[in-house]
Specification:
The complex is a heterodimer of chains A (215) and B (298). By secondary structure, chain A is an alpha+beta fold. Chain A has two domains: 3-79, Glutaredoxin (3-Layer(aba) Sandwich), CATH 3.40.30.10; 90-195, Glutathione S-transferase Yfyf (Class Pi), Chain A, domain 2, CATH 1.20.1050. Chain A has seven helices and four strands, in the order βαβαββααααα. Chain A has helices at residues 12-24, 44-49, 68-79, 90-119, 125-148, 162-172, 185-195; strands at residues 3-7, 29-32, 57-60, 63-66. In chain A, strands 2-1-3-4 form a four-stranded mixed β-sheet, with helices on one face. In chain A, α1 links the parallel β1 and β2. With 298 residues, chain B is of the alpha+beta class. Chain B folds into two domains: 7-81, Rieske Iron-sulfur Protein, CATH 2.102.10.10; 97-294, Naphthalene 1,2-dioxygenase Alpha Subunit, Chain A, domain 1. Chain B is built from five helices and 15 strands. Chain B has helices spanning 7-10, 115-123, 128-131, 235-254, 275-287, and strands at residues 14-18, 28-32, 35-41, 47-51, 72-75, 78-81, 102-111, 148-152, 157-167, 178-188, 191-198, 201-216, 219-228, 261-262, 293-294. Chain B has a seven-stranded antiparallel β-sheet with strand order 7-13-12-11-10-9-8. In chain B, strands 1-6-5 form a three-stranded antiparallel β-sheet, with no helix packed on it. In chain B, a hairpin with a 5-residue loop joins β3 (35-41) and β4. The radius of gyration of chain B is 19 Å and the shape is globular. Chain B starts with 6 loop residues before the first helix and ends with a strand. The model of chain B has no long low-confidence stretch (mean pLDDT 94). The chains are: A alpha+beta (215), B alpha+beta (298). Chain A binds chain B through residues 8-10, 32-34, 36-38, 40, 117-120, 122, 175-176, 178, 203-205, 207, and chain B through 18, 21, 57-58, 105-112, 235-237, 239-240, 243-248, 250-251, 254-255. Chain A: This is Glutathione S-transferase. Chain A: Residues 1-83 form the GST N-terminal domain. Chain A: Keywords: Transferase.
Amino acid sequence: MAITLYDFELSGNCYKLRLLMSILGLPYDIVPVDFFPGREHKADWFLRLNAFGQLPVLKDDDLVLSDSGAILAYLAKKYDASGQWFPNDPAITAEILRWHAVADDITSTSSAARLALGYDYAFDIEKSQNGAHRIFRLIDEHLWFGEREGRDWLCSPSHPTTADIACFPYVMLSEEGGISRQDYPALRRWTDRVRRIPGFTVMSGIFPAGPAKVD
Amino acid sequence: MPNAIDPITRNLWHVVAATNELPIGLIETTLLLDTPLALTRGNDGEPVVWLRSDEEQGDEIDAETIVERLPVRTAYGYTWTCLGTPTDDLFPIPEFAEPDRVNMSCGSIGIHVSAPRAVENFLDMGHFPYVHTDILGSEPHTEVKEYDVEVSEERDEVLATRCRFMQPRAAKSATQAMEVEYVYRVPHPYCAVLYKSCPEDESRRDVIGIFLQPMTEERCRAHLLQSMIDSTSTITDLRRFQQTIFGQDKPILENQYPKKLPLDPRAETPIRADKSAIAYRRWLSQKGITYGVIPQAS
């Protein structure tokens, strides 16, 4: 087995895979892709790996995979002996995939605002910011009621799943898109919990959580 | 309402783009000192900059049809322009011309902070172990040792020398922790250049420049230059190293308050390690820079 990640350091979608592989203790090699300013994800050699021209791409021996959510599911199903990160139960699988879709919505709003403000992309900043706030409000409510019921994570199991990994990076990077998380206390508590998962690793722009309060 | 632009700032050369990243025959738009600009490159590869009216990003344009142009200079891989009358030449970085150096842009990244705050962060070594953990610093090696700062009268720049710091991974080419020596220059109110010991060749120094494009008083674009002695890494590797560092600085910078740099010495409490920042603030004050700063009450 040899895993290779085609990776850009400042990409939250690439970080999702680095994060899960770090938690699972999976060794992998990195091939850096000059997404910015080089736009190497649109170069011929990269388009042969992923015709959609998007990062990340992961190679496991000869198998070539793209889309961060799909790869999270693959890594969990193949390498997570505990079966916790992407459980087989049909209802939970559906729940996780539902949140993977939310993660894509967070990418198209929060990440778009970050790309527009920091990396000169021609996205509508205000529309992206408003879209992110709408999603953050819904997640905050979902997590707030979850906390009342003793649920700490996005999905119903008593442990985190790939849904939490998928939604985490562009929530954490939202301030680079001018989107404050000040009004979402349950969302912020959840980001602290994610940052305390054993094996957690950072990316540029995301710092470790402080120690948890001991009651 | 933005402040009136002080005459020093108005007549400076300002960076606006990495020249090679400007498309030939297509328009790029940007903002400099609250002023909308349009940019392109002609078929000869030379950049053209002018005041933007109704042009949109990505519009096709023949550079030869642009009659009213702003002054343009190209230097260190970047395009520079001036909204007033340029009084001085651009500052020199002689190392850039050495034939065996690998010179590259590392991206132009927008940050929600004033340009002078970004310069000051670039000069600061105290944050290395906390922000650039296990790369440019690590606990318990947190001490900023005594260093020297002067304002060179002849070159009109702030110069910090004998800056030393223990770094786990000083550069892409580093294979072990080393005590690194830095020299910092601030040769322009919104630009800084650092020279640091080169892991590959003890007798030479890697050069890293940060050129800030003040877009508004509270927003800028950081244009990063690396001029390295490194015979093994690829450009992609070297860019990734620098972007990793800069990506760590970004949220710290964007959380500084106020976003403009206060020049009153009583406004923020410096420690001994901030000697270069104190000299930089004083130098800006003496020059009469008011854009992107909170001037000292007179």
